[in-house]
Amino acid sequence: MPFPAIPGWDVSGVVEAVAPGATGFAVGDEVFGMVRFPSLGGESAAYAEYVAAPASHLALKPAGIDHLQAAAAPMAGLTAWQYLIELGHDHPNPLQAQRHRPVPLAGRKVLVNGAAGGVGHLAVQLAKCKARTSSRSRRAPTSRSCASSALTMSSTTPGARRRTRCASWTSSSTPSAATTGRFLRTLKRGGALFPVFIGFRDADQADERGVTVSMTQVRSNGVQLAAFGQLLDAGTVRVAIDSTFALAQAREAHERAARGHIQGKIVLTVA
Ligand SMILES: NC(=O)c1ccc[n+]([C@@H]2O[C@H](COP(=O)([O-])OP(=O)(O)OC[C@H]3O[C@@H](n4cnc5c(N)ncnc54)[C@H](OP(=O)(O)O)[C@@H]3O)[C@@H](O)[C@H]2O)c1
Question: From CA 92, how far away is CA 98, in angstroms rounded?
Answer without folding.
Answer: 8
